[in-house]
């Protein structure tokens, strides 16, 4: 029996199934698209009222003043502190320009009175717009490490209640921290500010932690006028291409160092009426033109202030400055230096200016008085010969020969007092007393006159007799006899004619002393007059 082969049955979809699939696919795609759109809307929709208002102001190019914003009925839009709070992520995205569906105006972001409780992390962020966060409060840690601001970065009047890290921050224009309060640790180490750095009236309140400006570079001026530093401050190797203003600033920490070591200022540095309560160092600082410390107060009595190797190219004034502790001016270099009315430590060991150089120096308004004060300061300074030799050279340049001689003699006396002993000390005393170390040869004339006059008294006629009794009697002059014995190299013949009587034993012995003193004193006078003694 022959089997009939089976038929192959092919399933063919019906029209209803095809329609279902098409409808399902369309609905799925529509849903996905709708969800994406909804998510984008939600990102903006999730913003709190303050954030939404800030976005509106920023896109319109207006200032977002949360403190002053009003409703239509003139009531405050954000009356409570909680109403002015911003989320950290919102602020980060807003500043970086990554907030969805938000296009910032060319005026940038300007917010006043915001409160941010969350930590802000803008490390390595690229912030292209101008940023001004005025009178804001940052209650958690803030990091702008290596962040780049394309334009101005302003935090005027803001408060950072904990650590604020601006390490390596780059700002394409000005950085404004005027009246800003830092309650925690703060660093601007290695920051690079193209324009001006404003920190006038800023307050660095933490007594234990540092305000660090080490290696900061500012392309224009740095303003720290009236700033208050409760802890230590570090400006080591800071570079301000124009001027540095710290007039009337207060460095209040009595224990920790305020350090300006190797700081460079391209034009002038101002510290007038600035108060330094703790140890301070300007060692190696380089100020191209002017240093103004008029009325500054250095109040630390143990460590004082260090100006060692400091350089000021044109003019430095310390008028009315008060130094209560040690002052180190070793190897400092100044163009013109004005120390008028400055108050110095009274202890000699606390004042040091060996190696200090200057083209001009003044210590009082009137020149003669200034020279007296300068010599007094030299005597207060730790001794080195160059302290006096530089003063001598300066007085000579001014045409004050007598004052130059005083400086030279004062230096020799300090050398005798502190360095010489034994015969060296004795020789120095004799040179001082007799010829003023060669600068006052007339001094030797005083003992010469005294000795000749003494001879006139001692060699009276009734004590003298002729050398040879057989000689014809002559007229005796006690003056010429005394002078003839005293003068070496000169023979007035009187000594060959007269002699003390045989019974005048003392007078015969004194005659030899009289001759010997003449041989000592007269050559000294001649050596001083010819410049052999210096």
Descriptive report:
This protein is of the alpha/beta class. It folds into 3 domains: 61-366, no CATH class; 367-419, no CATH class; 442-529. It contains 11 helices and 44 strands. It has a 21-stranded parallel beta sheet that branches. Strand 1, helix 3 (88-96) and strand 2 form a beta-alpha-beta unit. Helix 4 (367-380) packs antiparallel against helix 5 (385-398) and helix 5 packs antiparallel against helix 6. The protein is rod-shaped. Residues 1-44 have low confidence and may be disordered.
Termini separation comes to: 153 Å
Report the average pLDDT across residues.
88
Q: What is the tally of helical segments?
A: 11
Radius of gyration: 44 Å
Q: What structural class do the secondary elements suggest?
A: alpha/beta
Estimate the global geometry from the Cα principal axes.
rod-shaped
| Relative helix content | 25-40%
Low-confidence stretches: 1-44
Total of domains: 3
Count of extended strands: 44
How would a crystallographer describe the biggest sheet?
21 strands, parallel
